[in-house]
What we know:
Oligomer: single chain
CATH architecture of the largest domain: 2-Layer Sandwich
Number of helices: 10
Number of strands: 12
Amino acid sequence: MSSQTSHSGNILVVDDSPDNVFLIKTILEEEGYIINTAENGFSALAQLQALPCDLVLLDLMMPGMDGYEVTRRIRGEMQLQQYIPILLITAHDTPNVARGLDLGADDFIRKPVTVDELLARVRSLLRLKRSMDERDEIARQREDFVSRLTHDLRTPLVAADRMLTLFQQGALGTLSPQMQEAIVIMARSNINLLSMVNTLLEVYRFEAGRKTLAFQPVDLSQLLQEVVGELTPLAQPKGLIINLDFDYTADSSTVSGDRLELHRLFTNLISNAIKFTESGSVNIRLKNQISSQSPPTAKITDYITVEIADTGRGIPAAEQATLFERFRQGSHKISGSGLGLYLSRRIVEAHHGSIVVNSELGKGSIFIVSLPIKQ
């Protein structure tokens, strides 16, 4: 056995030539690697689905399903939990290796393979695999830590909110005007902090795949009226007018969705419109939209569109491109954590819809949410 037997890993060798498989398997087993084999692309995909490996050695030219198609499916359709490097094995007279790399392969080696080159490329890709696994594990641990932290933070914040409410109600004795003012400020700050913690917790639930939506028929016109009723007290001190403009000629304003999450979505968008508008109005329009998909024979999908327009200062064009990314704070002096719009986007996408923004400095912003009537 070779002096470099310290390496380990499970490797899948995919080749329709038994001689090539035997040669590569013999070389790699001498190094202590565990080798599984597949004689075609279909068998390789089935094995990967059942038991992912650490590296795939993939012949580029095979009958039935070539290495290009296998690579495309591994990278595009299989949605494996961990990244698996792909090493293409190609003949010298196959020039279009670039296509395989563009589809997601990590490296290639030409036949006839030499022992030293094969082992060097295998070791290199297994190092890549280990580093990516370590990175993913660190990311998972970080997300789990943040999720646990935010969950634990909610308990004292909720308790503080209840105690402050009791103080404001006079349940714990009469307060002086100065104390009442201080309690109001403390309660407002506590509510803001609790809202940020709740948003962060929801974001990590989505990202960790722990978010389960309960789909049911939701009447958007009724939901929007409910949200506006809850948020009107925020608009009154500024003298803002909230206008509801519903297209009642539409057949239906009902979508299939998670009512709690849609409530969270529109609460966030409408409260943002109020927060960033100093004077004027917030206009909420609900209407039907028909979108024909390509190709022409595809099913025509009906959408309900909700437009939330404000008369605020607007959003700079440079910020609009990244507005729905996580931790992207705006340049406005009262911008928040940068998670609210990211969470809004995740909620919309979970409902198979879309969200976009149109804005011009000095003329306000329009957030447009489109949700399919039927899913």
